[in-house]
Specification:
mainly alpha, globular, 5 helices
């Protein structure tokens, strides 16, 4: 079990090195909603990058983790619109419903 305090600098650089699961980020009592969203978005990007590498023949890949990150984000901001995603894995999968920003 991790202590209640979080090394935010480390969490923003490598979320997986600070948190065991995306759900842990979403449930963390000492983080603000905005910090949780930013950490999860960074983690989403990292996992999406790994997916690109997997598609290019490198070992790895973790679709289940990406789904869990997106579900945690959805719980915080309420709106995953995969149909509005960009054509690459680096796209922003997460959007508020009805938002184009």
């Amino acid at each position: 079990m991790r202590p209640p305090g979080v090394n935010l600098e480390q969490a923003f650089q490598d979320p997986a090195s600070v948190f065991a699961t995306p759900e842990e980020v979403a449930a963390h009592a000492s983080l603000t909603r905005e910090q949780k969203i930013e950490i999860l978005r960074l983690w989403e990007y990292d996992v999406a990058e790994e997916e690109v590498a997997t598609e290019e023949g490198m070992p790895g890949g973790n679709d289940a983790l990406l789904q869990r990150i997106l579900l945690a984000l959805d719980g915080l901001i309420g709106g995953i619109d995969v149909g509005d995603a960009g054509p690459t894995k680096q796209h922003a999968l997460l959007r508020r419903r009805g938002s184009r920003s």
